[in-house]
């Protein structure tokens, strides 16, 4: 604390920052964000959910009025048409994929992905579009659905705004344009659209292929638009559904108090600041009236000398950040780098001035919130090794040593913080005032928000009065939001949002003729491998060396031999990888799994303008025999 205070004294209150995670318990996220902003006087903080889920957060909030994923996992088994855009659940979400395979309705499974992924191999329809042409395709599908008369006018008129403008906008996305830009044939486009039109329960699913794009938010909203215009939302087997990756990305989006205020509120709204300060018992003047910089802006702040102290918690930024070499060079410019993690062996922890050992899952307690809004309990089943402490207790100690411990005196335990979270949620779309305690969550196997205290004088009942039935059986059922057609904008309606597609930041050219695609390469490794790479069993299930998938025609053209090393270079760096020759990638494209630390030496730091999420999925590279 003395080092961070000294930095603030020399360089200003906002010269310290933190980067955190989607893998701590929600209560820990809440304590960290409130400690940093209300107690330590900091402002700039973000988490690695910026790298995976910021797009979904912004897209839902703009379209629906609140970050509210509408679905339940049961929808995997209740759809008659499932559309996966930029998603490979067979590898990335294998347990969810098992539910798709259990679907008894013999559904159409449609995959939009440049690669012939494992999911695409199992699909009934695969549309291998050109990389980053998915937004154009989605607008083209809207054009075709309107032409076929396959839109639900009653639903549109009663529950949405902006459709007429969107319909006019989509007129220019005719089949000739769509086919020219995506590489699909007119017959494929027609078949895709007619499959959606013919479905009774159509669900749309997306993950990182959409979120990690230079125009990610509008692409996610183009998916939402299709669900709205066909009335496929709020019913079993339907929805515009973003699947998270980290165990508590949803908790981070709601309660981490970073770029959005704790509880789904906004820092720029005076009434929101007043409510948060009142519920938490902190001085109103300690609540910032402006949001934090996003992750990439914090990195720029280090480059520009505005951020001098950095606290990294439970994330491996030295591997995962999109411009890896630059990021690691910038860490050397800091006056003080603190890394708090359960693994001292991560690339980031190895660069720390101070390492704080933290407890892991099963060594602490709290709650997590998953993709379907279900809050579940994490139980402590063993003691943490050595000097490791639960993140919650580390943050409490920091508060005491900083001198703001009194501000968090009532935050005695994770369950006490859960009580504060409940009160903050009152009247919000995520209202959980009806959840009594951890025991209730445990008894029910988790509870989806909203779960409202339904007493007659409870003002929050107006938000979700018909979101669930009374009685214990209702606690165990799977529930969707928007079943009543009411959304969270002031007028109760969802919005059609759209923009013209933008050119990619770095197209392939004569010098760099390939497009690099990245993603999950195996179900045996996860993210940067901080945990999974320590398992002998899991390591044996995936290639030890970094490999690159390349099309047979390209391999022959560029003199690449199977299982031989090749050099891949971009405008930012160069790496070596082992060649894997396969027709699962199209000519002019290569694929490298994200789990290998080398890959982000190549990726291009371009960002979606709305969500500030990095575009990991597209950059120009060249390939040479090593």
Unreliable stretches = 456-472
**Radius of gyration, rounded?**
24 Å
Query: Helical proportion?
Result: 25-40%
Number of beta strands: 21
- Total domains, how many? 3
Mean pLDDT across residues: 93
CATH structural class of the largest domain: Alpha Beta
Based on CA inertia axes, which overall geometry fits? globular
Number of helices: 26
Kindly report the CATH topology of the largest domain: Rossmann fold
Largest sheet: 6 strands, mixed, barrel
Class from helix and strand fractions: alpha/beta
Sequence of strands across the biggest β-sheet = 16-20-17-19-18-21
The CATH architecture of the largest domain is: 3-Layer(aba) Sandwich
Q: Termini, distance in Å?
A: 49 Å
Strand content: 15-25%
Task: Explain what this protein looks like in three dimensions.
The chain is an alpha/beta fold and 626 residues long. It folds into 3 domains: 2-44 and 250-427, Rossmann fold (3-Layer(aba) Sandwich); 55-243, 3-Layer(aba) Sandwich (Dimethylsulfoxide Reductase, domain 2); 514-625, Barwin-like endoglucanases, CATH 2.40.40. It is 34% helix and 15% strand. The strands form 5 sheets. It has a 6-stranded mixed barrel. Strand 1, helix 2 and strand 2 (44-47) form a beta-alpha-beta unit. The longest helix has 14 residues, at 26-39. It is globular, with a radius of gyration of 24 Å. The N and C termini lie far apart (49 Å). Mean pLDDT is 93; it is low at 456-472.
């Amino acid at each position: 604390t003395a080092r961070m205070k000294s930095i603030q004294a020399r360089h200003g209150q906002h010269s310290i920052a933190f980067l955190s995670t989607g893998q701590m318990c929600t209560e820990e996220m809440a304590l960290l964000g409130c400690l940093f902003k209300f107690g330590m006087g900091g402002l700039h903080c973000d988490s690695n959910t910026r790298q995976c889920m910021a797009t979904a957060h912004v897209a839902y909030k703009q379209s629906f009025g609140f970050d509210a994923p509408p679905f339940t996992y049961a929808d995997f088994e209740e759809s008659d048409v499932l559309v996966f855009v930029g998603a490979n659940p067979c590898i990335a979400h294998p347990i969810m994929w098992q539910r798709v395979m259990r679907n008894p309705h013999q559904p159409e499974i449609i995959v939009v992905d440049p690669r012939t992924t494992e999911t695409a191999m199992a699909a009934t329809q695969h549309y291998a579009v050109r990389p980053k042409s998915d937004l154009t395709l989605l607008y083209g599908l809207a054009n075709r659905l309107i032409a076929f008369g396959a839109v639900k006018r009653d639903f549109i008129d009663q529950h949405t705004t902006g459709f007429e403008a969107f319909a006019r906008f989509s007129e220019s996305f005719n089949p000739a344009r769509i086919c020219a830009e995506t590489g699909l044939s007119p017959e494929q486009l027609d078949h895709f659209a007619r499959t959606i039109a013919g479905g009774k329960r159509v669900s749309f699913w997306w993950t990182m292929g959409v979120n990690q794009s230079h125009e990610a938010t509008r692409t996610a909203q183009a998916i939402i638009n299709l669900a709205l215009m066909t009335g496929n939302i709020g019913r079993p087997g339907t929805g515009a559904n973003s699947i998270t990756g980290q165990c508590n990305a949803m908790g981070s989006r709601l309660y981490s108090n970073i770029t959005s205020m704790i509880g789904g509120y906004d820092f720029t709204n005076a009434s929101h600041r007043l409510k948060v300060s009142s519920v938490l018992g902190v001085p109103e003047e300690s609540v910032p009236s402006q949001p934090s910089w996003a992750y990439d802006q914090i990195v720029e702040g280090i480059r520009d000398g505005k951020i001098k102290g950095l606290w990294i918690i439970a994330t491996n930024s030295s591997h995962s950040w999109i411009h890896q070499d630059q990021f690691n060079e910038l860490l050397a410019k800091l006056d003080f780098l603190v890394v708090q993690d359960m693994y001292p062996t991560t690339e980031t922890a190895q660069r720390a001035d101070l390492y704080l050992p933290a407890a892991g899952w099963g060594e602490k307690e709290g709650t997590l919130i998953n993709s379907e809004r279900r809050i579940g309990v994490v139980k402590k089943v063993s003691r943490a090794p050595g000097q490791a402490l639960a993140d919650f207790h580390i943050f409490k100690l920091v508060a005491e040593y900083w001198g703001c411990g009194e501000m968090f005196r009532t935050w005695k335990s994770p369950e006490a913080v859960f009580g504060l979270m409940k009160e903050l949620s009152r009247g919000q779309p995520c209202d959980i005032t009806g959840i009594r305690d951890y025991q209730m969550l445990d008894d029910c196997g988790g509870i989806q928000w909203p779960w409202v205290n339904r007493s007659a004088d409870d003002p929050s009942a107006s938000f979700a009065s018909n979101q669930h039935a009374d009685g214990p059986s209702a606690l165990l059922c799977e529930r969707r939001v928007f079943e009543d057609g009411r959304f969270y904008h002031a007028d109760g309606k969802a919005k059609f949002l759209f923009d013209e597609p933008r050119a990619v930041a770095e197209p392939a050219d004569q010098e760099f003729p390939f497009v690099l695609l990245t993603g999950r390469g195996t179900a045996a490794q996860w993210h940067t491998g901080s945990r999974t790479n320590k398992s002998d069993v899991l390591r044996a299930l995936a290639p030890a060396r970094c490999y690159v998938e390349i099309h047979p025609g390209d391999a022959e053209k560029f003199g690449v031999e199977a299982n031989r090393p090749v050099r891949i270079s971009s405008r930012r760096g160069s790496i070596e990888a082992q060649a894997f020759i396969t027709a699962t990638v199209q000519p002019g494209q290569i694929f490298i799994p994200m789990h290998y630390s080398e890959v982000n030496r190549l990726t291009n730091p371009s960002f979606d303008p709305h969500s500030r999420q990095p575009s990991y999925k597209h950059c120009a590279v060249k390939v040479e025999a090593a």
